[in-house]
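step 4 of 6: structure.
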Amino acid sequence: MTTGVQAQDATVGSPAPRLKGKATVDTLSIGCLAMVMKDGKLRRAEILSIKETKSGRQFYCNFDNFNKRLDEWVPAARIDFSQDVEWPSPEKPKETKKAAAPVAKKTTTGNKKAQKRPAATRETSIISEGETPHPWAEFTESQKATPDAEGDVTMTLDLDATPGADDDAMDVDDAAADAVAAKSQLNRDFNDEEEKKRLRHGGSMTQNQAEISRIRNISKVQFGRYDLFPWYFSPYPECFTQEDLMYICEFCLSYYGDLKSFGRHRQKCTLLHPPGNEIYRDDYVSFFEIDGRRQRTWCRNLCLLSKMFLDHKTLYYDVDPFLYYVMTTRDKKGCHLVGYFSKEKESAEGYNVACILTLPQYQRKGYGRLLIQFSYELSKIEGKLGSPEKPLSDLGLLSYRQYWTENMIEILLEYNEREEKCSIDALASQLAMTSGDVESTLQALKMQVYLKAEHKIVIPAHLEARHLAMKEKQKTKPKRVIEPGRIKWRPPIFPASTRTWAW
Amino acid sequence: MAPAQRVVRQRKLNKSTPQSVLREEQIESAEYDSLQNQYHVETGVERSEENEYHLQVALKANSNGSEKDEVKEIPAPPAVEGADINYDELYSLEFHQPDTYIRFSDTVEEACGCPYDMTTEDDVFLKAYNQKKTPSHRCSEDKFEKIMDVFELTAQSHAPFAAVDNTVVPFDKMKPELIKQEMGDSTAPLRANVAEKLITLAKDIYEHWRERRQASGNNPLQPSLKFETHQENDDGDPYVCFRRRDVRPTRKTRARDVQSTDKLKRLRREIEEGRHLVALACHREELKRQVINTDKLIFEARAKVKEAKVRLGIKGDDEDLINQRPQKRKVSDYPQMQRVPGTQLRLPARPDGRPLDADLVMLSDVLAQKENLLQREIEEKTLQHRKWNANHIDLTREPLSPVNGHGPDTGFRPATAQYQYLMTPPSSVTSETFDQPSPAQEVTEPAKFRYNSPEEDENRSRPAYRRRIGRGGRLWIDRRGMSSCVKTLDDEIRSDRYKYDQDDDDEQPVYEMDPYDTRALKFRATIPFPAHLAQNSRRVEPNRPAVQSPPNSRTAAAPQPAVAPT
């Protein structure tokens, strides 16, 4: 629908000096920054695409400091034309050699400012999309935070570009911008290459995204009993972008744009559960282990599906080097996919999770915690400390933080009771977490203090209270947990010949 | 790490250092606040997204805990239960959960039948087509899909670049493929009328297929993912996915080198061991053949001897004709025989490291092993008991001698680990009966005696034993090389007694004991009469005198009253 349009406009978000001025519906072009109504508030938004509909022209907006999953098509009526818009910089610092233009994404120059806005404004705008009942919890994965990765570059870019920028002082950074832009351009290209090189051998997460993939391409998906509204771009066959509704078979995850085809497929499809070995079963969920090499089609389908909800997942390379651990619920129709995490067969960085996702229809029901716990139980069986691949998504971070916090508080309270001392390593080995994750969680929760020439761990009162409240609640309504005894799994061993991922 | 204004310089935090764990109320709160470290916490979220508004709100809510009612969730587009989904019709199969964990390896392709799924367009065509035909010539949807699938596959293989050069694969090329598919696995050729019907049908569908292909720019009809075709063009195309990965280059390190050398060495060693085993087995079989040959020679020689004897009328000396030795050996080897099958079977399995064979545990092995273990234990105990009993003297007047037979050999045998060899029975006794009096029984007996373990005198000459049958069919064990211990006894009274025992060793020693003493009676009653003894002595007795007790050994002996052998 919009694919042709935005590709050439890769430099939209570059921090180069921007002209400001009044615009009209007709002059407003891709790359402009305008004030757009979102949840009853005007927010700065970047126009990423424009389309004509029967009801008039619509603009695809990415809102400042809002996650991309909240991007949406807005009619002209929601745009405030009484305020100046910022025009895209006329000169293109790089020719469109690559449609991949993280630059645009980094439009976020504005982000910094939005943050500095008075808190009041923010709080009020929190309610978000009117009809949306905000499910939460997609757990995303990871990839190590390569220091030279895109994110960093843009970071410096932001910093450089907006020294002491106050709220709307977009222009302030103009001076520095040219040089910075040029420099960062170089860096970026280099980093693209770097990242591809890294991914060539392993990994599932990317920090780079092509410009085109900034725009959601599938509008609605029928999956089992549910209608899903994708959050992000996913490289399903391009013709599906024309369809109002895409059909995905709940069991083999094949995709159809045509209802008749889908119906025919359903008559032939015999799968009733993920095509692998069940390695865990309790009365609530089952886990299946699936080898990306053996079940290439199924795993590719799974990746395409999950890409709709995972921003930084990369499908650039194939699924062979991964194992997929798929969580399902059972009923008389079969084992329904709830969520999954993938795991590298051989992770150089010691990651125990590559991508992790709970499907939107199952979010906010505690399934994410089960997935995370399961990943650590596997690590315990392997006798390794694990960590999710970076970058994490926002929802991934929250889920992991929650899991880490709960488990660490639990253990620390016991230590406190026994008046024993506890080291970071001890915590790490009990939870099969890397000590880095333990340390950062302690710091994030403000538990790590330096007192009387000694490092100490302090359990904040509110966390203790929350933990006790949770315990109390569990007495009446027990929390679902993975029972390690039910896991029937041995770490798979892959001989060198099967680790050759180039087919 | 520490902010610039901090006066205290922190020591570096060591991850393995135990830290005290305190609750917030255990420290002064003011202090706590001031101690809050301004760490930069690695979140793992991409930098540009780290500051996203909803995430920050949620994180703040989590770490402060103050505003509990704060919305902690990050808003996301919802998923809703579809209103107009006819779920039961679409998903008509029923799932029956097996009791055991599911094991499954079919791929999607294998589980989904014909890969071509007819579209709405096809449906329209097929319905129109079927309407025109008589029922017998109608085409089912399955059939239609199969044919379409053949077209697609054939087009793909015959003209992979059809989209570029617009090649249309002619129907003639489709025919053989169609026939092939119709035949499936069977080798019998299709009947002519079936083939003809198929071809006419396919011909009609071919036109439809060609039209559809042309309409879609001669691309495959089924939507498919974009795979890599041309590196340069593909690179920026986000629709191109699932590229091949490169093999992770293995880094050459010293450790890796050592590893592979070790691996090679081990491999070589294992192969060597295997070879050695085969050689040994070969050798063993050769020996066996020799044995058989020798046996045969012996047999033939004996046959001649017998013939000669018969011819010459010689009687007696028939032992030569009987194979004595093997029998003897069989018995004397008995404990080893037990051990041998076990060890021999296991030996090849273990060192050659072939897990499959090693895993195959034979019941007989296990039994043999157990038996051996038992046997060894028994032997040990027996030895120990022997040690304890070394200087034991039964002071009862008519001591029962529950002695278990040592060999009927004439001379004394050293009482060493060779113990079992002494068990050779008289030739008339079968090995089976001899099995019973095996040391196992002796072990149980000693428990009934009250032993004192006498001090071991190292200087003493090696003890030796012999067994013989005394008067009244009693079995005796004579010991040698232990008399000194008696002399060392301090007990005057006791040594006194022996003064009179010297004259005749066959003489029953007379002890001052009241034979009707209930204690002695009771004690004796606890001694079971060994079954084998009853059998043995009865059977053996008649010819014993001839075989046994050469007088010369007796003179050297300082015979002792019989004692329990163990």
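step 5 of 6: annotate
 - Confidence is low (pLDDT under 50) at residues 1-14, 93-188 of chain A.
 - Residues 120 and 126 of chain A are 10 Å apart (CA to CA).
step 6 of 6: archive
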